[in-house]
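> forwarded from #structure-qc
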């Protein structure tokens, strides 16, 4: 039996709750949102599926959930240039909502942007073991990386996220596409071109339909499934670092084995010079934001 709590049931949170229900990932849902009309509407919409699934809106049940998805806050819109720009709006939301997670003993999946900073903040302020704080974003970036390569006729191959394409670093401007994991010579010019495309990938969707939904919701549901089923598979996700990749004081995208207890281990892959430099830049940038967030 898997009890899934979702804090913030707007565009992404609501879709994640729906997918988790219809795919049979969750056996019970606990939904929370400060927008009462939206919350009631989402619950009713779920009931109209006809699924035999308990859906509660009692916030006291969050702490006993096996997995909690934290997706409360403002999403990006065309006027928000980067995810990091949302820190002044969403960090207060995160601070105001931490009470719901007092005593929480499950696995926390952080979605709210800037996700890496919020994942670090929640881990630090709530005193949750870092293994149980999993930041979502890397799987989506990996899938976008695969699309960018296909559009340029570059074959990645291999196993893993999105067919062998991996993105580490920040879920934002300082993401690090890993070219050294697949065969073929990709020069610096091509790498920078692909990186620029990845940075702008979500904004194309946001400008066209108001926000991203299908991509993130699907990958979040897949992450929940991997955790709930104790798959122990390696995925790209944000983890609170304690020296891995020479970084600490931040949460950053890394390859990690995930299972029922959250992050089981972090894999430290050899990176080439370009990737290593980008990873260090990502760590420095995110660590700076994390330090300000928790001060």
């Amino acid at each position: 039996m898997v009890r899934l709590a979702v804090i913030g049931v707007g565009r992404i949170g609501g879709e994640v709750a729906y997918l988790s229900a219809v795919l049979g990932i969750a056996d019970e849902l606990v939904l929370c949102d400060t927008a009462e009309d939206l919350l009631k509407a989402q619950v009713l919409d779920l009931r109209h599926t006809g699924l035999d699934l308990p859906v509660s809106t009692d916030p006291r049940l969050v702490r006993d959930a096996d997995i909690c998805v934290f997706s409360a806050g403002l999403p990006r819109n065309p006027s928000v240039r980067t995810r990091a720009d949302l820190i002044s709006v969403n960090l207060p939301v995160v601070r105001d909502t931490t009470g719901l997670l007092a005593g929480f003993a499950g696995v926390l999946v952080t979605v709210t942007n800037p996700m890496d900073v919020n994942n670090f903040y929640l881990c630090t302020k709530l005193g949750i073991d870092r293994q149980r704080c999993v930041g979502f974003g890397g799987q989506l970036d990996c899938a976008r990386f695969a699309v960018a390569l296909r559009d340029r006729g570059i074959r990645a191959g291999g196993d893993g996220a999105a067919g062998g394409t991996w993105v580490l670093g920040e879920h934002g401007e300082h993401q690090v596409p890993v070219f050294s994991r697949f065969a073929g010579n990709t020069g610096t010019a091509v790498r920078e071109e692909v990186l620029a495309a990845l940075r702008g990938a979500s904004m194309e969707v946001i400008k066209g339909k108001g926000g991203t939904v299908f991509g993130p919701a699907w990958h979040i549901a897949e992450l929940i499934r991997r955790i709930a089923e104790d798959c122990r598979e390696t995925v790209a996700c944000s983890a609170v670092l304690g020296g891995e990749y020479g970084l600490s004081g931040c949460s950053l995208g890394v390859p990690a084995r995930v299972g029922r207890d959250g992050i089981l281990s972090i894999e430290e892959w050899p990176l080439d010079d370009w990737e290593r430099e980008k990873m260090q830049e990502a760590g420095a940038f995110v660590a700076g934001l994390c330090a300000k967030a928790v001060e």
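QC bot note: The mean pLDDT is 94. Residues 188-209 form the longest helix (22 residues).
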